[in-house]
């Protein structure tokens, strides 16, 4: 397995996120990737390598060019407003919500931020663009290594994560949708049908929305029930896709407190649906915030369960790209991610 790790990830280091009216320390921290990197190295899992340059043409096929332009210039615009802004990160405080216009780009910077950000929990920092771009390159290179036959499986070990980011929006700690980029790269390399299987605790709303009207990319997500869990406003079972994509989206919401036995039944259901769709290659949006010790999530998976997750995924027998998504029990991340990969490779 080739592991493309993001050498720029530390440049994205949010300081605080908004939670219940207060700014609190970020959960999505650089130590996350470091712990996974060290665990893979220590256990000798895969071959660690750095990605090449990002493919801007591929990025523009998944994300709107005006959104990419905004991300590229946002920090400079923020500092231009006031050099003292160096000391704080960009968070939105106003949105084009109910009854307001989303189609016009305002000139006011804060108004622009609210047009692209859907929550106040996702700080944009000095190095966010650089880190996100290098992460996109990890996902792209992982997909292409597998598509070319260089490797049967690969991983994008990266942060910030991606599955909450849509064509023209960010949130949920995500800016560029790495899993979607990997899926598109697999399609472009010749796979007629591909699937994204999202096992992160949170619904992959960005990935779902990117592919919602397409039949060539099947999206399946098992996640905390959006009636009580983030991202709240998408991820229900009645979202089936539309147009050419009707039947190519599967949501399996599960209640807070779900244990491994119940979760595994949902995973098997999603895997059966991927098989029925006829996918020739698979992207796994690998969040391990399903762990019982996760500080922001409510499933009950234990460390010894993760190898069995990898085994089940391997049972599909597909060329597979793992893309790192969430997981915030920082000290346990290495063991849990390594467990999935060891189970997959066994
Ligand atoms: C990629 C990913 O896993 N994104 C998750 C984004 C979740 N953002 C909302 C976090 C709310 C934090 N709640 C803290 C509860 C502490 N008891
Ligand atoms: Zn998550």
Protein architecture, described:
- This protein has 346 residues and is an alpha/beta fold.
- Helices cover 36% and strands 14% of the residues.
- Strands 4-1-5-10-9-6-7-8 form an 8-stranded parallel sheet, sandwiched between helices. It has a two-stranded antiparallel ribbon with strand order 2-3.
- Helix 3 (65-81) packs antiparallel against helix 4 (109-116) and helix 5 packs parallel to helix 6 (178-188).
- The relative contact order is 0.15.
- Bound molecules: N-[3-({4-[(3-aminopropyl)amino]butyl}amino)propyl]acetamide (SP5) and zinc ion (ZN).
Task: Specify the CATH architecture.
Answer: 3-Layer(aba) Sandwich
CATH class division: Alpha Beta
User: Could you say how many structural domains there are in total?
Assistant: 1
pLDDT averaged residue by residue? 98
The coarse overall form would be globular
Continuous helix count: 10
- Spatial gap, N to C terminus: 12 Å
CATH topology: Arginase, Chain A
Determine the CATH superfamily. Answer: Histone deacetylase domain
Helix content: 25-40%
Q: Largest sheet at a glance?
A: 8 strands, parallel
Structural class: alpha/beta
What is the gyration radius calculated from CA atoms?
19 Å
Low-confidence stretches: none
Associated small molecules: N-[3-({4-[(3-aminopropyl)amino]butyl}amino)propyl]acetamide, zinc ion
**H/E element order:** EEEHEHHHHEHEHEEHEHEH
Can you count the beta strands? 10
Strand arrangement, major sheet: 4-1-5-10-9-6-7-8
Strand content bin: 5-15%
